[in-house]
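Hi P.,

Sorry for the delay on this. The queue was packed all week, but I finally got your sequence through. Input first:
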Amino acid sequence: MNQISARDAPRDAFPGNLIFKEFSAAEIGAIAHLYRGEVYRSTIWRSRLDMTTNWTVVLTGVSLTVVFGSVSASPLPLILVGPLVAVFLLLEARRYRYFNVWRARARLLETDFYAPMLRGKQGRMDGRWNVLLAADYDTPRFHISYLRAVGRRLRKNYIWVFLMQALTYSGKIFIHPTPAMSMSDIFEHARIGPVSGQVVIMAGVAFHAFWVALAAVTYLMERRVRRRQQTLITIS
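Then the structure:
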C-alpha cells in the first residue's frame, strides 16, 4: 500500500494551533487496543481478497482441465471463464477499498506513533498524525477510487490470469483437434457454432486489449496522484 506519513504532510494541511500533549499510560493503552483492532480488520479484509483470488485460480484451472482433457474438447470454457474472472476482479476491487482504509490507519499508527516510541521518544499528540486519524474516524471515507482499486488488483494479480487464459486458448486452437497449418485452420478451430472464428478471435483480442489498456491508464493515474499527494493518510 502506498502511504504518506503525517511527518511528510505539508504544514498547511493542519490547523495553526497544533496541540503538543504527552499521552498518559491509559491513553497509550487505548491506542494499543485501537491499533490491534485496525490490524484485525485489515487482516479480515486481506483474507477476503485472497478468497476471490483463490476462486479465480480454481476456476481457471478447472477450465484448463476441461479444455485440454481431450482433443475434441471445445475451447468454449476458456472463453466463458474470461467474463467470470472479470467479475471476480470487480468484486476484489470493492473489497480492496475497504482493506485500504483499515491498513492505512494501522500504518499511520506504526509510522507516527510506535516508530517514534521505539526510538526513545514518548508517544504524544503533536497535532499532526492524531488530527489526521481523528478526522478519518469522524468522517470515514475510502482513500482510493474504485477505478484505481480495479487497476491495482489487475496489475498485481489478474493481468497474469488473463495472460494465461490468452496463451492457453491460443495453444488450444493451434493444436486441437489437429495442428493448424494455416490461418483458415485456426479460424475453423476457433469457430463456435454459427459464430465464425474471425469474430471469436477479434472479440478475444478486444477483451484482453481492454484490460491491458485499463492497467496502463490506472498506472498513470497512480503516478499522477503520487505527485500531487493530496491525501495524507494514504494516497487516494
